[in-house]
Structures are given as C-alpha cells and as structure tokens.
C-alpha cells in the first residue's frame, strides 16, 4: 500500500482568528473525538511542521537526550500497540478510552526517560508538540473541505502517516463503518 503525504494546509486556514475555534462539547465525548480525529487527519502536515520545529530546537540544544527520548517513546508506543493487539482487555481499553491509552504511553515514556536521563527534553521535545496538536485539534472547528478529505481517508482512497497512527490506535474503525453503512444505504 502506497503512503501519501497530506498536503500542507494554508497557515491562515490552520491558525486564523478566533472565529474558527470553539470549545468542544465535553458532554459528548464521541463528537469531540470525531473532531480531534478529523483535524488530526486534515492538518497532519501542518502538525508535523510545528512538531519538527519544536523537536529541532530541543534536538539542537540536547541532541543525545532528544534521540534517547524519541527512541523510548517510539518503542513504548510500539510495545503498547503490540500488547493491545494481543490482549483483549487492552484492545477494549484502547478502543473505548483512546486518550487514556495515549496518556498511559506518555506516562510510561516519562518514567523510562526520567530513569535514563533528562526529563526536560521529554517535556519540551516530545510532550509539548503532542499537547499543542491535541489542543488545536480539539478547539479547531471542522469545515466542509476537512470533512470531505477525511471521508476520502476513511474509505481508503488515500493512506497517510496519521491514518496509520490512528489505525494503530483504532480510532478510524467507527468512521469507516459509519461511512460503509451510509454507502450501502445510498446504493439501496
């Protein structure tokens, strides 16, 4: 399967004034989750650019610790994903509480990195970019182009790096199932 990089969205679309931002409905976690997933897919290249900038700054200031920190986070993430595919209880936890799953990965990484070395590298080089992505994806309202692009991603017309990460976290299956149900209804 060919991996495609999503296009870089215009910066004025990515971060305009407050007119395109709103607090999510904290009572409807499913709707909030859909907004976050949708924005993560749509703005993934913009998020990558912001994260690369922050990681580069921290990496320049402390390259060895950044390399160790990044390696630990990747290995912990892969370990958690592997365990969740082999243990039903973790699979259910990941599917029902994706934020808890990501927090568990980050806390495990934090403790390993604090054991190995510099915690500040973890905080500014790894956690800060992830936190900024989550806050932006939570607050940014979706537009028509965003929704259309995500439908294409959901039905497999285009596979992107963020799509693979969200698949590993099992955050796209519901969207794909809903879209498949909709398509089958339209055909009838």
Automatic annotation (TrEMBL):
It comes from the Eukaryota. Coiled coil: none annotated. The chain crosses the membrane at residues 40-61, 67-85, 97-113, 119-139. Its main location: membrane. GO terms for biological process: negative regulation of transport. Keywords: Acetylation, Cell membrane, Cytoplasm, Cytoskeleton, Endoplasmic reticulum, Membrane, Transmembrane, Transmembrane helix. It is found in: Cell membrane; Cytoplasm, Cytoskeleton; Endoplasmic reticulum membrane; Membrane. Pfam families: PRA1. It is a multi-pass membrane protein. The keyword Acetylation applies. InterPro entries: Prenylated_rab_accept_PRA1. GO terms for cellular component: cytoskeleton; endoplasmic reticulum membrane; plasma membrane. Belongs to the PRA1 family. This is PRA1 family protein. It comes from Grantiella picta.
């Amino acid at each position: 399967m060919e991996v495609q990089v999503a296009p870089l969205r215009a910066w004025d679309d990515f971060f305009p004034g407050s007119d395109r931002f709103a607090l999510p409905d904290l009572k409807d976690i499913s709707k909030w989750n859909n907004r976050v997933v949708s924005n993560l897919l749509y703005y993934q290249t913009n998020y990558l650019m912001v994260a690369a900038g922050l990681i580069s700054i921290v990496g320049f200031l402390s390259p060895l610790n950044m390399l160790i920190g990044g390696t630990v986070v990747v290995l912990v993430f892969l370990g958690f994903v592997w365990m969740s595919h082999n243990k039903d209880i973790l699979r259910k936890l990941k599917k029902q509480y994706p934020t808890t799953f990501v927090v568990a990965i980050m806390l495990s990484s934090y403790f390993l990195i604090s054991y190995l070395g510099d915690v500040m590298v973890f905080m500014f080089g790894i956690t800060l970019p992830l936190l900024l992505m989550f806050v932006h994806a939570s607050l940014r309202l979706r537009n028509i182009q965003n929704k259309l692009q995500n439908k294409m991603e959901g039905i497999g017309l285009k596979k992107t790096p963020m799509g693979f990460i969200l698949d590993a976290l099992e955050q796209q299956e519901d969207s794909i199932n809903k879209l498949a149900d909709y398509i089958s209804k339209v055909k009838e």
